[in-house]
Amino acid sequence: MNKGTVKFFNETKGFGFIVDAETGKEYFVHVTGLSDKITEKDEVSFDIEEGRKGLNAVNVKKI
């Protein structure tokens, strides 16, 4: 399980980006991959999964 910070999340469109705390990489996150409601600057834990257009954050939970 990875840890990071929500860089951006648009509730209306249902997507955003999470920055991994260790690597600094950005991962796309879709509302379907959320376990908790998130907003910008939330600290989260997440798994990474291969999506249609690259790696996505899934099982996203606030910590």
A few lines on this structure:
This protein has 63 residues and is an all-beta fold. Helix content is 0%, strand content 60%. The protein has one domain (2-62): Nucleic acid-binding proteins (OB fold (Dihydrolipoamide Acetyltransferase, E2P)).
Model description:
By secondary structure, the protein is mainly β. It has a single domain, classed as Nucleic acid-binding proteins (OB fold (Dihydrolipoamide Acetyltransferase, E2P)), CATH 2.40.50.140. It has strands spanning 2-10, 15-20, 26-30, 43-51, 54-62. The chain has a 5-stranded mixed beta barrel. The chain starts with a strand and ends with a strand. The model has no long low-confidence stretch (mean pLDDT 97). It is found in: Cytoplasm. Residues 1-62 form the CSD domain. One of its GO terms (molecular function) is nucleic acid binding. This is Cold shock domain-containing protein.
Name the CATH superfamily classification.
Nucleic acid-binding proteins
Second CATH tier, the architecture: Beta Barrel
Helices and strands, in order, run as EEEEE
Helix count equals 0
Average pLDDT confidence is: 97
Major pleated sheet: 5 strands, mixed, barrel
Number of strands: 5
CATH topology: OB fold (Dihydrolipoamide Acetyltransferase, E2P)
For the biggest β-sheet, the strand order reads 1-2-3-5-4
Helix content: under 10%
Stretches where pLDDT is under 50 for at least 5 consecutive residues are: none
What is the distance, rounded to the nearest whole angstrom, between the alpha carbons of the first and last residues? 12 Å
